Amino acid sequence: MREKILNYIEKNSRIDIHDLAVLVDADEASVLNCLEEMENDHIICGYHTLINWDKVGVEKVTALIEVRVTPQRGMGFDKVAEHIYHYPEVNALYLISGGFDFMVIIEGKTLREVSEFVSAKLSPLESILSTKTNFILKKYKDHGTVMQAGHKDERELILP
Amino acid sequence: MRNPLNKTIVEIEPSGIRKFFDIVSEMKDAISLGVGEPDFDTPWRVRDEAIYSLEQGRTFYTSNAGLKELKEEIANFLDRRYDMKYNPYEEMLITVGGSEAIDIALRAMLDPGDEVLIPQPSYVSYVPCAILANGTPVIIELKEENDFRLTAEELEEKITDKTKMLVLPFPNNPTGAVLERKDLEAIAKVIEKHDLFVLSDEIYSELTYLEKHVSIVNIPGMRERTVLINGFSKSHAMTGWRLGYACAPKKIIEQMLKIHQFAIMCAPTTSQYAAVTAIRDCDKEVADMREEYNDRRRYLLHRFDEMGLKCFEPFGAFYMFPSIKEFNMTSDEFATRLLKSKKVAVVPGNAFGSCGEGFLRISYAYSLSNLKEALDRMEDFIKELREEQHAS
Questions:
Q1: Least CA distance to B175: which residue of chain A?
Q2: How far apart are CA B304 and CA B311, in angstroms?
């Protein structure tokens, strides 16, 4: 049941509990219990909204920053990561395989704000060897959802 | 001028619900629960394969019976999913949708005067296709109290010395009814006893929600008497590709192939290349769609239950078939009033045979939010009707 609930609320966190219970074939009380359990266990880490900011006319700049670091003795990458993710500008942080170590996702109001964060805060950190900043030009799909409005139902009436 | 027309086709009634459909098509902002085709897009990898085949210039005919590779993959699929063994080179024919297969199977097997048993409510094509094949359709009226299953007794009752074949449309459009192994075993006994043949339309076979689909072909002795019809429209959300297939003993397929090659040549080539990918690589996509349909099915059942609308639990296809007999009006009247007052379109049950009178076909090939909105409106409508009845 957990997985099924998660699959539904991952796509629609505002789903009516009554409907959700029918969809996962359980009663409302046990769905509510299950949700609460998962919130406590930090399986559900929050209920966010996917927003196409482009349409709101609010300027936002997102950058994916590739970061190479020297892992710290005894702690590996975690200590460095902690240092980075505490900055409120950091939207997401991943340890990754390949040519660099961290992917830092920064969101700022302007290009300048993002560059300032990189040059003034990120780069000077002792363990950081190099950074490479990639600005997002256009967001096509996020969280499995295509940002532009879906196509309308074009099915035609046909003999049943 | 002489009459240019053929008497048989002129005498076939146009569908009784055409008038209703005309009203629906004029009402642009109506929410429809009337469409009998998947709301999902064809899986992207299938569409991608079709684009690739066009880029490669594969715009020729295929062989009449269909692309060899596709027939082999269908044979694999039938074996993997349903434990059916068919020789792809001699016992299989790729057709323009399941509908072509229905037509040519009837034409290949019926002689004038042969009777064809057609259970109803069912898909609207069987009766006219049987008539056009010079057969005589004989209707078996399925009953709500049997969950719209065909029973051996109902079958036996309609058999005469002219009966040649039975159309077996399960999982069923419009009722959503399925047959289980025990039902099929009982039917098979009657088929064997009276030396009949079966046209088994299993186009909804991938959409069952109780247990895996069982075919009459799986019952000992029946494979030799059955034309199995299936396709890609419902399972793989590929209605517009027009692709189906028929499997049958060699001597039947050979004659069906004659009609197919003279009338059709071959099924659309692009669709056939795409279908290779669909049937070989898309079990996961099909399972995901099935799960979503099943959730919607439970949602609708729950809503009908809440509004006190009587509906048997269907375990197949993507339709519900609730009864509206308590309101003392015909399916047509109910559907027309629902459409005019709440702008929700459903299909009157009598479209699928006169025994569908008193029922509605509601398709759940719609997004959950769409279903929710339509069901809210339907609930209001029913409340109003009940108040109206109470007042009078």
A1: A160
A2: 7
Instruction: With CB atoms and an 8 Å threshold, state whether B361 touches A155.
Output: no
What value does the mean pLDDT take over residues B279-306?
96
E strand or H helix at B314, and its extent? none
% of chain B with per-residue pLDDT over 70: 100
Q: Which residues of A touch B17 (CB under 8 A)?
A: 160
Q: Does residue A74 have a pLDDT over 90?
A: no
Task: For residue B62, give how far its alpha carbon lies from the nearest alpha carbon of chain A (Å).
Answer: 28
For residue B353, what is the nearest residue in chain A, using CA coordinates? A160
Tell which residue, B59, B33, B44, has the closest CA to residue B237. Answer: B44
Three-state SS at A47: coil
CATH of B44-281, one of 3.90.980.10, 3.30.1360.120, 3.40.50.920, 3.40.640.10: 3.40.640.10
Contact residues of A toward B, CB < 8 A: 19, 22-25, 153, 155, 157-160
Q: ipTM of the assembly?
A: 0.82
Mean pLDDT (chain B) is: 96
pLDDT at A150 (0 to 100): 76
Residue B16 has pLDDT above 70, yes or no: no
B59 three-state secondary structure: coil
What CATH architecture does domain B7-42+284-391 belong to?
A: Alpha-Beta Complex (3.90)
Q: Do B302 and A22 touch (CB under 8 A)?
A: yes
Model pTM score: 0.92
Contact check, Cβ <8 Å, B36/A22: no
Across the interface, whether the CB atoms of A157 and B295 are under 8 A apart is answered no
Query: Per the CB < 8 Å rule, is A160 touching B352?
Result: yes
pLDDT tens string B33-49: 988 999 999 999 999 99
* Per-residue pLDDT reduced to its tens digit, A119-134: 999 999 888 999 999 9
- DSSP at B14: P
Classify domain A53-141 by CATH architecture: 2-Layer Sandwich (3.30)
Enter the tokens of residue B248.
């049958």
Min Cα–Cα distance to chain A from B160, Å:
30
How far, in Å, CA of B37 to CA of B39, rounded? 7
Q: What is the pLDDT of residues B154-200, one digit of tens each?
A: 999 999 999 999 999 999 999 999 999 999 999 999 999 999 999 99
**Domains of chain B: which residue ranges?**
7-42+284-391, 44-281
Radius of gyration from C-alpha coordinates of chain A: 21
Q: Which residues of A touch B35 (CB under 8 A)?
A: 155, 157-158
Domains of chain A: which residue ranges? 2-40, 53-141
Q: Give the closest-approach CA distance of B151 to chain A in angstroms.
A: 24
Q: Do A160 and B372 touch (CB under 8 A)?
A: no
* % of chain B exceeding 90 in pLDDT: 93
How close are the terminal C-alpha atoms of chain B, in Å? 57
The CB-side HSE value for B27 (13 A sphere, CA atoms) comes to 17
Q: Do A158 and B35 touch (CB under 8 A)?
A: yes
| Topology alike, domains B7-42+284-391 and B44-281 | no
Q: Nearest by CB to B295, which of A23, A155, A158?
A: A23
